[in-house]
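Project outcomes to date are best conveyed with an example. Our students and postdoctoral researchers have been running inverse folding experiments weekly, and each run begins with a structure described purely in C-alpha cells. The record below, which covers 68 residues, was selected by the lab manager from last quarter's runs and is presented without edits.
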C-alpha cells in the first residue's frame, strides 16, 4: 500500500491509497481492505518514546522500530 499522508490534530490523514492485488490470496486481500478502511478513518496518532500508536474506534496498532 502506498499513498500520501499527513498528521492533523493528532490524527493520521491518508488520502488515496494504491495497492497491488496481483497473486494475493483472499485472506491478504481482506487484510488490505481492513487496513485501508482503518487508515481512511483518520486514526489518532500518538508517539511514546520511539513507539507509534494508531488508534481507531476499537483498534490500536502499535508500531515499534526495527531492531538493529
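After processing, the design step wrote out the following sequence:
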Amino acid at each position: 500500500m502506498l499513498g500520501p499522508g499527513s498528521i492533523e490534530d493528532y490524527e493520521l490523514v491518508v488520502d488515496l491509497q494504491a495497492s497491488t492485488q496481483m497473486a494475493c490470496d483472499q485472506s491478504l486481500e481482506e487484510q488490505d481492505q481492513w487496513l485501508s478502511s482503518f487508515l481512511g478513518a483518520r486514526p489518532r496518532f500518538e508517539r511514546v518514546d520511539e513507539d507509534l500508536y494508531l488508534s481507531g474506534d476499537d483498534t490500536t496498532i502499535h508500531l515499534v522500530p526495527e531492531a538493529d
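The first strand starts at residue 5 and ends at 8. The longest helix spans residues 26-40. The training component of this project remains on track.
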